[in-house]
Design brief:
Elements (H helix, E strand, L loop, with lengths): L14 H6 L9 E5 L6 E7 L3 E2 L4 E2 L5 H4 L11 H4 L8 H6 L9 H4 L4 H4 L9 E2 L23
Parallel strand pairs: 2-5
Antiparallel strand pairs: 1-2, 3-4
Length: 151
């Protein structure tokens, strides 16, 4: 079924359907800082060392959670706890919230590079954590906007 995401819940998706929801924007691979006082999360422009540029692919995807224990492993069961760690443009987050996929999403546009041309991809906009000292992380807090220009 071509538009499976409209007819199935996230829990009903098979592994291939689940993976195809990822638009390869790379935003979930960015380091986030948490305010210890109120728990607010802040995105940075610092990427995980395993985020390959310019295609926003993980160089160790099958073993990522062993190599990077804090890596987000999205599943239908883990999604509610990780929802704040995902950008507003994320297909998993949008579908979980009952929202449609954006028109640029690769499943709609049939273009695997659509996150890039829509301005959603982090390609060319981030720096690897290998080049930033942890004390400098707060200097790299940024606002990422979704496809509608909102946070």
């Amino acid at each position: 079924m071509a538009d499976f995401w409209r007819h199935k819940t996230l829990a009903q998706l098979n592994a291939g359907e689940w993976e195809s929801l990822c638009d390869r924007c790379g935003r979930c691979c960015l380091l986030k800082l948490e305010d210890e006082d109120n728990g607010d999360l802040y995105f940075t422009n610092i990427s995980c060392r395993h985020l390959q540029q310019p295609d926003c692919r993980c160089t160790c995807y099958p073993t990522r959670t062993r190599q990077v224990p804090e890596c987000l492993e999205l599943t239908p069961d883990s999604l509610p706890a990780l929802i704040d760690h995902l950008p507003a443009s994320c297909a998993y987050k949008r579908l979980y919230q009952g929202l449609p996929l954006p028109p640029w999403h690769p499943l709609i546009s049939a273009d695997p590079a659509s996150a890039e041309w829509a301005g959603i991809s982090v390609s060319g906009k981030v720096i690897s954590e290998d080049y930033i000292h942890p004390e400098q992380y707060p200097e790299h807090i940024i606002q990422w906007y979704n496809w509608q220009g909102e946070e």
